[in-house]
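ok so for the tutorial part 2 we go from a plain amino acid sequence to predicted structure tokens. step 1 is just haveing the sequence, like this:
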Amino acid sequence: MLIETLKRHWWVPVIRGIAAIVFGVIAFVYPGLTIAVLVLLFGAWVLVDGVFRIVGAIGHRASDSDWGFNLIIGILGIIIGFLTFHAPGITALALVIYIAAWALMIGATEIAVAIKLRREIKGEWFLILMGLASIVFAILLLWNPVLGAATLIWIMAWYAVIFGVLAIIFGLRLRSLPALPVR
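step 2 — the prediction. this is what the tokens look like for a chain of 183 residues:
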């Protein structure tokens, strides 16, 4: 049943991927953005991602026993997005910790879903790679937060583009799955 719902909503990871790539390209093209603008861009990205996670969780609630966990991750994403809009003048260190915590949550979720789907679809490794990219991104930020704050724009841009490409590929693979028999 989960695979039916994922196939029906194949466009959700594609839109998430496009949003991530747009964010990454903007960060590459304008590396001199002030930290306040970076905070706003990140807040918008996390907010959009949170909304789509909530939509996906609610849409999958009949077929996914873990839909509540995904709903919580989406709500936390929206809260983090609103917190960044509410206090754009936060320190770079706090931003690094916010982003790292968010990336760790996303990474763990993507890997958990991939493990759950490994017997149902081929190509679940794209989800694993998305999760690993998120976790590596978080570790890089937390390894040296001061340096992380200084290089945050470039790290975020690479992460967003890689995550976005993988999400689009995963969504298109879901779309290309054969039609499922009607029950």
